[in-house]
């Protein structure tokens, strides 16, 4: 079943998450129509290779053309229209930057895998539960309801101001009419009666002026209360969800809803501002003793301007945090002289601002708060915000060609880039702009979450550990001195984040048993992990007991191993992985001989091994584990093929494959058959073919186990032995001779 078919079978709450990351940058129609072809391409490799990305883009357009031909024959007008639009988008938007579409598709496929993994996990962690709290959802609905009510109130006040204007025009006309009469006419009873009517009208005007000012005051007060409480909390919650999403957590939505709220409030405030201007205009034409306009209007206008300033300042946000396209799963880790992207949005979407706001990017603007290392940004660091580049028409700007460059110190040399402390130094990328609108000038500033600068890719694992720890431990967006005294983290939350590393990076998270093993490795046997506080040093700086590496280095090596060598097996759930040797034997001891499981090595970085159970002639159970396979050996031979072809030579016995059932009782070929690179070659004699007279050969992993040993032995290296050669050996040599030769 294709990945897309699995996605379509998800529950609605997960489908809503999928819907969030498909837009006009990569339309869902194309994902649906070309599902199998898209999943068969290596988009991640293309994201780092421009030539490969260009070929994939051209092939994608060809695939769209083929679909267009098909639907044209079916006369599906709507699909024809959409496919033509998509084809135009692909050619126009990505022709000059084909790696960008490769990054987008790669990210979408990865997010799909993460959501599929999350859907298969039975229990939510504490962090994810807090992000999906019913209280948060209720507040979101309340904010939207109140904003809508405020907008309606402002519009109703518009009608009151119009009525007041009409009433004043009538009063003005009747008053001027009386003033134009001769003195004798003014003394008539009719005129006196008209003067009394004018006085009554003036009283009504006064009442209506007070009423309008009161209504305007209530609208301003409601906006003030909403901005000070619920809207501020909603924005802070979105920023916290963004932090969590950056370290592998659930996708953060809600920015479009916030944009709608901010925009409606801004429109309401500008509407109130126009109403106050209209009152000022009415004031110049008519005033009287006790007139409320000159007393109340200046205070109300000052409050409106104050609210507009605050609303604009809060609306300037980093929509997508800095990230190198070459490492999309590691945002906020930036390498010197390597391009990164970052996207900003103004949540107040007004047509008058399109292409009118120029944003400038700088790094370490407040240099006194950071380390002695100094950086500058190279590339295009000033761009205009617009509504054309975003699929949803938001007012945004994306910087795609920024590069951090380290400046030389006063001593003439660069900072000590090789030290471990480099990955604990936090830096800040700042953005500033100015909004000029309707006579207001507002300066805006915002900053990215703290970033870590590296000069060598080897520093990336520890730099990413710093990003994880910071964003797990604090919601402070700018604590650049955080690692001067890093706080401890709650172990239960850290374990949840570690599971996210696997779900986001390699498509499948960790279950409770796997997480328990990691917890034991971090803190030993504990009664409860829920409230345990783990230090930063324990996580990333102190070596594991008896080892020459830290916990994080060990875990990062496993992630790299999965990603590069055993990804399909991991996604299928066939790699138990995190299980101790003691637990391993408990699981296998009562199983059928030949039952095996796969686990990661605890003593070798980036190693995977398998252990199987066997039964001796006297009925005793014995266990055998092979020497861990590392990335070097797995580069030569796929792991699924190793499991298929693995042989053991026992003393006085012929070689045989001891691996029969994957724990608990899955036949080996049923579990791994679809991952074999090819079917095993039929055994043939040297004369049975082979190119140019050569016998076809394959690598066969072979181990030797002595009968008088009850402890597992390490295997020999992979031996190049073809099936045909093995057949000839069996014809001419005894099993003992074969064993001697292997030894």
What keyword list fits this structure?
alpha+beta, elongated, 51% helix, 4 domains, 743 residues, Glutathione S-transferase Yfyf (Class Pi), Chain A, domain 2, Transcription Factor, Stat-4, Immunoglobulin-like, 25 helices, single chain
Compact summary:
This protein has 743 residues and is an alpha+beta fold. Helix 10 packs parallel to helix 13, helix 13 packs antiparallel against helix 14 and helix 16 (491-506) crosses helix 19 (551-571).
Description:
The chain has 743 residues and is α+β, with helices and mostly antiparallel strands. The chain has 4 domains: 3-120, Transcription Factor, Stat-4; 140-313, Glutathione S-transferase Yfyf (Class Pi), Chain A, domain 2 (Up-down Bundle), CATH 1.20.1050; 324-407 and 420-455, STAT transcription factor, DNA-binding domain (Immunoglobulin-like); 563-678, SHC Adaptor Protein. Helix content is 51%, strand content 14%. The protein has 25 helices and 21 strands. A 5-stranded mixed beta sheet has the order 15-14-13-17-18. Strand 8 (429-437) and strand 9 (440-447) form a beta hairpin. Helix 12 (189-246) packs parallel to helix 14 (293-315). The longest helix is centred in the N-terminal third of the chain and has 58 residues, at 189-246. It starts with a helix and ends with a helix. Residues 411-419, 681-690 and 708-725 have low confidence and may be disordered.
Number of strands: 21
Indicate the overall shape: elongated
Tally of alpha and pi helices: 25
By CATH, the topology of the largest domain is Glutathione S-transferase Yfyf (Class Pi), Chain A, domain 2
Instruction: Name the CATH architecture of the largest domain.
Output: Up-down Bundle
Widest sheet, order of strands: 15-14-13-17-18
Secondary structural class: alpha+beta
């Amino acid at each position: 079943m294709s990945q897309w078919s699995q996605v379509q079978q998800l529950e609605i709450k997960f489908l809503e998450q999928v819907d969030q990351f498909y837009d006009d940058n990569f339309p869902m129609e194309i994902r649906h129509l070309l599902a199998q072809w898209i999943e068969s391409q290596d988009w991640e490799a293309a994201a780092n290779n421009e030539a490969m990305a260009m070929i994939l883009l051209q092939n994608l357009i060809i695939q769209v053309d083929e679909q267009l031909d098909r639907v044209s024959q079916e006369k599906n007008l709507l699909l024809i229209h959409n496919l033509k639009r998509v084809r135009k988008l692909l050619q126009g938007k990505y022709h000059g930057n084909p790696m960008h579409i490769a990054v987008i598709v790669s990210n979408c496929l990865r997010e799909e895998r993460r959501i599929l993994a999350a859907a298969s996990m039975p229990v939510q962690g504490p962090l994810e539960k807090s992000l999906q709290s019913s209280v948060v959802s209720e507040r979101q609905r309340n904010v939207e309801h109140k904003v809508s009510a405020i907008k309606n109130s402002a519009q109703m006040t518009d009608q009151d101001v119009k009525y007041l204007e009409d009433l004043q025009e009538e009063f003005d006309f009747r008053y001027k009419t009386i003033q134009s009469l001769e003195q004798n006419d003014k003394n008539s009873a009719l005129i006196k009666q008209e003067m009394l009517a004018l006085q009554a009208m003036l009283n009504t005007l006064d009442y209506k002026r007070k009423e309008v000012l009161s209504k305007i005051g209530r609208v301003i007060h409601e906006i003030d209360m909403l901005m000070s409480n619920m809207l501020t909390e909603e924005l802070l919650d979105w920023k916290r969800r963004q932090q969590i999403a950056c370290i592998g957590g659930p996708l953060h939505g809600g920015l479009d809803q916030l944009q709608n709220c901010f925009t409606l409030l801004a429109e309401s405030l500008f509407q109130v501002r126009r109403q106050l201007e209209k009152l000022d205009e009415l004031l110049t034409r008519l005033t009287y003793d006790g007139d409320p306009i000159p007393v109340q209007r200046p205070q109300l206008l000052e409050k409106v301007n104050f609210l507009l300033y605050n609303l604009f300042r809060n609306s300037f946000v980093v929509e997508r945090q800095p990230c190198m396209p070459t490492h999309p799963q590691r945002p906020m880790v930036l390498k010197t002289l390597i391009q990164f992207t970052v996207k900003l949005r103004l949540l107040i979407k007004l047509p008058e601002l399109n292409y009118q706001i120029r944003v400038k990017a700088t790094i370490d603007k407040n240099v006194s708060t950071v380390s002695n290392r100094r950086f500058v940004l190279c590339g295009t660091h000033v761009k205009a915000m617009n509504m054309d580049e975003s699929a949803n028409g938001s007012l945004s700007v994306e910087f795609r060609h920024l590069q951090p460059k380290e400046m030389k110190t006063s001593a003439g040399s660069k900072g000590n880039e090789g030290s471990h402390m480099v990955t604990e130094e936090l830096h800040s990328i700042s953005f500033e702009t100015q909004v000029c609108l309707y006579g207001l000038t507002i300066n805006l500033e915002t900053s990215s979450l703290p970033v870590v600068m590296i000069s060598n890719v080897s520093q990336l694992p520890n730099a990413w550990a710093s990003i994880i720890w910071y964003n797990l431990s604090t919601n402070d967006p700018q604590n650049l001195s955080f690692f001067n005294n890093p706080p401890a983290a709650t172990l239960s939350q850290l374990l949840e984040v570690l599971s996210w590393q696997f779900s986001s990076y390699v498509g499948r998270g960790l279950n409770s048993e796997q997480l328990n093993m990691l917890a034991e490795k971090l803190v030993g046997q504990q009664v409860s992990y829920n409230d345990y506080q783990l230090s930063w040093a324990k996580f990333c700086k102190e070596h594991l007991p008896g080892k020459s590496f830290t916990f994080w280095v060990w875990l990062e090596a496993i992630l790299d191993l999965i990603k590069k060598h055993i990804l399909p097996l991991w996604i299928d759930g066939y790699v138990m992985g995190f299980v101790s040797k003691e637990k391993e034997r408990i699981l296998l001891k009562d199983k059928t001989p030949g039952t095996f499981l796969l686990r990661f090595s605890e003593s070798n970085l980036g190693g995977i091994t398998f252990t199987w159970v066997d039964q001796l002639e006297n009925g005793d159970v014995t266990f055998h584990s092979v020497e861990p396979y590392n990335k070097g050996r797995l580069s030569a031979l796929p792991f699924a093929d190793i499991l298929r072809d693995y042989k053991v030579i026992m003393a006085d016995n012929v070689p045989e494959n001891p691996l029969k059932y994957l724990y608990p009782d899955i036949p080996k070929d049923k579990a791994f058959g679809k991952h074999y690179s090819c079917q095993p070659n039929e055994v043939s004699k040297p004369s049975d073919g082979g190119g140019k007279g050569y016998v076809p050969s394959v690598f066969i992993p072979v181990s030797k186990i002595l009968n008088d040993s009850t402890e597992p032995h390490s295997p020999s290296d992979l031996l190049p032995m073809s099936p045909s050669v093995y057949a000839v050996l069996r014809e001419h040599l005894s099993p003992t001779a074969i064993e001697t030769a292997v030894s």
